[in-house]
Design brief:
Order of helices and strands: HHHEEHHH
Largest sheet: 2 strands, antiparallel
Radius of gyration: 27 Å
Strand content: 5-15%
Number of helices: 6
Strand order of the largest sheet: 1-2
Shape: flat
Length: 160
């Protein structure tokens, strides 16, 4: 698998059990990983390009249907020949955290429970937590759970 002619095709890679792939030389795994990353990059670019074309083709029609339905966002359906098009313009609401905190304080100061109106979540920066003295860490530690994500491996070909 050193030269380009000996490289596995994507179908061959998928048909090879992971245990057999794991037995390959590190250089071969490096090449497979890079080839896969290149394929993924090209596939993403193709999808984005086609999505832009679909937007050019259907955005005006979808907008007109939303206007007719009295809405700015959401899903509309229409047919184009034998193709059923579902156009979704999702709503993305963002809240100003500082202003919300002020409203929450006013609600609490008024004697009401802010939890009846807003969802409140707390986060602690892991960097800050690790920099704290033990006395402060010990107060927060019972509320902290460490979970791990999916393991990842980066491969870099070293110069000989």
């Amino acid at each position: 698998m050193d030269g380009a002619s000996n490289r596995l095709t994507p179908d061959q890679v998928l048909a090879t059990p992971a245990g057999e792939l794991a037995a390959l030389q590190s250089e071969a795994l490096f090449q497979l990983k890079n080839d896969a990353a290149d394929l993924l990059s090209v596939a993403r670019a193709i999808v984005e390009h086609i999505d832009r074309a679909l937007e050019l083709k259907y955005a005006d029609r979808a907008h007109a249907l939303r206007l007719a339905a009295g809405k700015d966002t959401g899903i509309v359906h229409f047919d184009d020949g034998h193709v059923r098009v579902t156009a979704d313009l999702p709503k993305r609401v963002e809240w100003d955290q500082r202003r919300l905190a002020e409203v929450v304080r006013r609600i609490a100061n008024g004697g009401e429970d802010p939890a009846e109106y807003v969802e409140i979540s707390y986060r602690v920066s892991e960097t800050k937590f690790n920099a704290w003295p033990e006395s402060l860490k010990s107060a927060f530690a019972p509320a902290r759970t460490l979970k791990t994500g999916k393991p990842g491996f980066r491969l870099a070909l070293m110069k000989e």
